[in-house]
Amino acid sequence: MSEQITKPVLQLRQINKNFPGVKALQQAQLSLYAGEVHALLGENGAGKSTLVKVMTGVLQKDSGELLLDSTALSFATPKDAQQAGISTVYQEVNLLPNLSVAHNLFLGSEPKRFGLIDKKAMANQARQLLSSFGLAIDVTAPLSEFSVAVQQLVAIARGIAPKRGAACTKVLVLDEPTASLDADEVQTLFQVLRQLKQQGVAIVFITHFLDQVYQVSDRITVMRNGCFIGEYQTAHLNKAELIAAMLGKELCQQRHQAPCLAVEHSEAILTARQLNSGQSVQQLDLDLPQGQAVGLAGLLGSGRTEICRLLFGLDQADGGTLSFAGKPIKLSNPAQAIALGIALCPEDRKTQGMIAPLSIRENISLALQAKQGWWRVLSKKKQQQLADFYIEKLQIATPDADKPIGQLSGGNQQKVILARWLAVEPQLLLLDEPTRGIDIGAHAEILQLIRQLCQQGMSLLVTSSELEELTAFSSKVVVMRDRKKVAELSGEDLNPDRIMAAIAGASV
Amino acid sequence: MTNEATILNSTPDQLKAARQARYSPGQSAHQFSLYLYPLLALALLLLVNLLLDPQFFSLQWQEGRLYGPLIDIVNRSAPVALLAIGMSLVIATGGIDLSVGAVMAICGAVCANLLVLGDWSIPAVIGLAVLTGLGCGLVNGLMVSYLGIQPIVATLVLMVAGRGVAQLLNQGQIVTFQNPDFAALGSGSFLGLPVPVWLVLLALLIMQLLLKRTALGLFIEAVGCNAKASRYLGIDDRGIKLTVYLLAGGCAALAGIIATADIQGSDANNAGLWLELDAILAVVIGGAALTGGRFSLPRAVIGVLIIQALSTTIVVSGLPSKFNLLIKALVILLVLLLQSELFRHQLKTLLSFNKLRGGKA
User: Fold this and answer.
1) Contacts of B216 in chain A (CB under 8 A)
2) N or C of chain B: less Cβ packing under 10 Å?
3) By CA distance, what is B15's nearest residue in A?
4) How far apart are CA A412 and CA A397, in angstroms?
5) In the 8-state DSSP scheme, what is residue A142?
């Protein structure tokens, strides 16, 4: 490609960014050339948004270089980035629905006459701008009167609209622009992107729809766990290779020592038949055998998390049957699931798992306390014993049990949440992404723990984006795509390549 | 994966060493320092009073009862202290209850009307008043937890409507009664101390037992810190929220009973007026965050004493009364700043900087 010879318009090099307890970016990089659509891909939590935020001045990098037209810059505020010619359209439409379309487009840099806003000129400029998008709408009408798709296009138009005192747009970042658009609207958007490309704008395109990546992008950068994984020409990378890069492909040696493969067929602890829940899970048949770990694979939004929520009573089933330990059950809240012996270690540790200001001791004993009921208090001594036991058993790195959990590193926080559920001694433990965003040491320890728990007879359902990890401990792996179960792999078929093929579906 | 292998193969001792090396030191909250600054502020205020009035700490024993400025402060704090106990729980869940002043008025009106209408026994009057308070709390709690209305809006409804209800009960009049037994709840004494002080101590004791001897206190803090995570671990977060508004309603009823007994009548327009704001302020002075989480009932009561001591100081100082509100605001701002660790740190840096400069000059 000819752009390769020229210098990149924007280059990010060796960017590091830490949040308390999380290494959000480690040596991340990105190169953008004028006139390309560059897809930035990775699973949730891979660091895409953080990288974009560093690039657009929302967050400050801890170290690393940001070169715009070969000059090193750093943006203190989003406005600085905008002035330099980097515009962003965020996932949620950040517009003011009560103002007119034209006003939204030029908010903050309205054309003026005698110090007052020149509405006529503004409307004219707005019409001109939108006509290049193939949009002929009444620009003086309030934005709220138009469909989400139009609003999305207006947001993009706003991104490239000329701002007072700013350089013309060199880089346009689109974070999930197509999430709320239907197929036709997506095509309109892509037309616009191709036009902008012609004008020499570099476009960063973040999406979870891989088909769209192949339709519109020229190059791809893949990130995983805050690290740069690779930069590829879209034309030279097939979908399976792309998914492999996104999910990680290094085969794990641990597979050879997987001990929880039960040879004999064991009883199912939980059975689901034709289980439905609105749009999120459809026609699910699932058997979870006693004393084994079952893996749950699939891309983001494929229904993995939704299954966990359903089995824990956070969402209600609206069809099908569910039975646990041989008895039919109906779950309407988590307390019921916990009483039966089902526990869930949720996907988002920060908002759903830990109670940050409370101590490790309290965080560990809370679930057991809730199960016992509020009137039967666990004495402080009993809490301390529980905490000490699990701090030792799970190797939680802390000076004492009274430290607030929020001050621990990600991996240790995750261990505390695990300890919370082990203290309840559940029969079935659902782990939703138990190893996301934690350091490699804690990662290995958690995998080890999953094996141990199986040996002790606990049943587990583990969701993970890391396929080699799933094959390391699972007796079978259930693959989800578009909210449906598409494969169930075990024995010889249980390897990352087969899982990946199933995730990618027939289009490989 | 070599990292993984090393960790799996190392000895327990090595692991322990690695574990110790990895932890990042952070400060655990010290109970001591949490009490230090509120108590210090209270002591300072009392000292100022002593300077203004040498007789301030004097106590007299008359007719089987202690009298003196200190007893006055404690006695006058009683209604707000009861409100603050309930308010602490509500604030700990991240909510707020603006209606407690109005609930005081309603419960006071209930008491006065029952006493005027017929020969109800005192326990029955108290019981009905407390039930009324719990009913008000139930309305607040249902609106907040099950209808999902923001606490400030939900309780604002009862704050406005409640005073109207009290006015209706009293038919626009100030209802007065003659009942020495009931009046004793406000102005009587027991074992040398005023009855309201005993009521506060009793409420504080019962609440502390309820919160510490069951898991209720822990659950309230958990829900206040993170309601979603609490639901995920099996706590009935809505039930907890409902409970705290119920308890706040009950506390407001007790405060209303004391206020009514004290003046032997119910004034729907003025009973408990603006006291919800004093209660909220007391909880904040006690170190609780309005966003929810950790709370302490004793500290909230200390907060009430600070506010009451301050009011007394202003009166004792002989300043024209037009300065009262302004001075109160300034002193409370100062107390709040002193409690902020950030502010203390900045103050320290500033002072040491000045000292350095002074040393050079």
Assistant:
1) 374
2) C
3) A395
4) 6
5) B
- Pairing mode of beta strands A459-463, A171-175: unpaired
d(CA B185, CA B261): 6
Asked whether B259 and B108 are in contact (CB, 8 A), the reply is: yes
State the ipTM, two decimals.
0.81
Same domain for A309 and A386?
no
Last residue of a domain, one of A425, A441, A465: A425
| Nearest Cβ partner for A355 among B1, B215, B230 | B230
Looking at this protein, which amino acid is placed at residue A388?
Answer: D
User: How confident is the model over A478-488, as a mean pLDDT?
Assistant: 88
Contact A272, A445 (CB under 8 A): no
A contact test, residue of B9, B219, B230, B233 with most A CBs within 10 A = B233
CB B204 within 8 A of CB A358: no
DSSP string across A234-257 = GGG--HHHHHHHHH--PPPGGGGG
Report pTM.
0.73
Nearest partner of B294 among A368, A20, A355, A377, judged by Cα? A355
Check B22 against A409: CB less than 8 A apart: yes
| 3 state DSSP class of A494 | coil
Identify which of A97-101, A430-434, B134-138 has the greatest average pLDDT. Answer: B134-138
CB contact under 8 A, B236 and A335: yes
* pLDDT tens per residue, range A218-242: 999 998 878 898 999 999 988 878 8
Which of A377, A405, A425 corresponds to the end of one domain? A425
DSSP codes, A24-68: EEEEEEEEE-TT-EEEEE--TTSSHHHHHHHHTTSS--SEEEEEE
Residues in chain B, total: 361
Spatial separation of the C-alpha atoms in residues B183 and B67, rounded to whole Å:
18
Q: How far is B317 from chain A (nearest CA, A)?
A: 42
Query: Position A369: which residue type?
Result: Q
**Domain region containing B207:** 32-51+67-340
Nearest CB to B23: which of A378, A399, A404?
A399
* Cα Rg, chain A, nearest whole Å: 25
State the CATH number of the domain containing residue A318: 3.40.50.300
Q: Which residues contact A21 (CB under 8 A, 6 or more apart)?
A: A407, A408, A409, A410, A413
